[in-house]
Amino acid sequence: MDKLYEESETGCCPRFDPEPWDQKEVTFQDRLFVKDHVRSFLHIPLNFGKVMVRNMERIKNGGALAPEPLMLSDEKSLWSADIYIAVTKDVPGAEMTRISGTFLTKVFEAVQDVRSWVEEMKAHVKAKARQMKKMYFFYTTCPKCAEFYGKNYVVILAQV
């Protein structure tokens, strides 16, 4: 696959700034995404790379690459996840969907103890006197870019 974000240091994922995402409230109004499905084993993705390459090629070829990447994962079960890749317009050959809602966000670093992150996010939502409807994970960089940047940030978005 050709370089996606050529202006970034890696030519792939831009360096992520956690400040605009940490402990914020964001609203999406009909935000357009390409939707796909990843097979998992105990939440460990089995075909994530293949699914991402296929979709990013479609998005780039369709001229729909978002100026700032946003890729959400809905960990539906131990065996599968739906992924949502933000785009600027409909992408030929891809399943399209729109997401609307208000989300509380929290940034975490490294991919170690995801269970504790989920509990921390639930406590954060409760402390704000809100009720969570759904939780998405925003993986901010690919593994190679995370290694290059020396940081591996994940943002949890709790729909309230």
Structure description:
The chain is α+β, with helices and mostly antiparallel strands and 160 residues long. The protein is 22% helix and 38% strand. The chain contains 3 helices and 7 strands; from the N terminus they run ββαβββαβαβ. It has helices spanning 48-61, 114-127, 143-149, and strands at 25-41, 44-45, 71-77, 80-86, 95-109, 134-139, 153-159. It has a 6-stranded antiparallel barrel with strand order 1-4-3-6-7-5. Strand 1 and strand 2 (44-45) form a beta hairpin. The protein is globular. The N and C termini lie far apart (37 Å). The mean pLDDT is 91.
Q: Approximately how much beta-strand content do the residues carry? A: 35-45%
User: What form results from the Cα inertia axes?
Assistant: globular
Spatial arrangement of strands, main beta sheet: 1-4-3-6-7-5
Q: What value does the Rg take, in angstroms?
A: 15 Å
Count helical runs.
3
How many E-type strands?
7
Largest sheet: 6 strands, antiparallel, barrel
Task: Report the uncertain regions.
Answer: none
- Structural class by helix and strand composition: alpha+beta
Layout of SSEs?
Layout: E1 25-41, E2 44-45, H1 48-61, E3 71-77, E4 80-86, E5 95-109, H2 114-127, E6 134-139, H3 143-149, E7 153-159
Antiparallel strand pairs: 1-2, 1-4, 1-5, 3-4, 3-6, 5-7, 6-7
Which terms summarize this structure?
6-stranded antiparallel beta barrel; 3 helices; 7 strands; globular
Briefly characterize the structure.
This protein has 160 residues and is α+β, with helices and mostly antiparallel strands. The protein is 22% helix and 38% strand. The chain has a six-stranded antiparallel barrel with strand order 1-4-3-6-7-5.
